[in-house]
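PROTEIN DESIGN WORKSHEET
SECTION A - STRUCTURE
LENGTH: 138
TOKENS:
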């Protein structure tokens, strides 16, 4: 049974996950090399962090000769959804409405973002209506 995945990723873990999502299967040295020069971590720091990610259930490895190759086993979208659920539960009493009102109320939403949000709401409404129609007895 795989380890239980933690709800959250630290900044260092998220940086490595983003690289794994972009690069696919790779070695620790590949990860180190792919980091921007001004933010590059030491090999041992990357190795420690990737092992933590493996223990959390986000990454797995396979051996190729003497090297270990690491792969993300949690899709980026799934990790994003997990983080959003965590934030909603922790700060917004499990209310998506409270989250959206907080996002919209900060005055930082552009007209383009609002248009995309309106479209997403319209699509969610259509999906909810079609689901309601499929339920017998309604």
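SECTION B - SEQUENCE
RESIDUE ASSIGNMENT:
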């Amino acid at each position: 049974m795989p380890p239980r995945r933690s709800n959250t990723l630290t900044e260092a873990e998220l940086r490595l996950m983003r690289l794994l999502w972009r690069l696919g299967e790779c070695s620790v040295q590949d990860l180190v090399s792919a980091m921007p020069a001004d933010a590059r971590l030491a090999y041992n720091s990357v190795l420690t962090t990737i092992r933590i990610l493996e223990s959390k259930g986000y990454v797995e490895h396979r051996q190729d000769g003497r090297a270990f190759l690491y792969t993300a086993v949690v899709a980026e979208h799934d990790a994003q959804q997990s983080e959003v659920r965590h934030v909603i539960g922790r700060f917004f009493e499990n209310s998506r409405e409270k989250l959206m009102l907080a996002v919209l109320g900060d005055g930082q939403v552009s007209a383009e973002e609002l248009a995309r949000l309106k479209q997403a709401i319209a699509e969610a409404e259509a999906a909810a209506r079609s689901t309601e129609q499929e339920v017998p007895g309604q």
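SECTION C - NOTES
The mean pLDDT is 90.
The beta strands are 59-64, 67-72.
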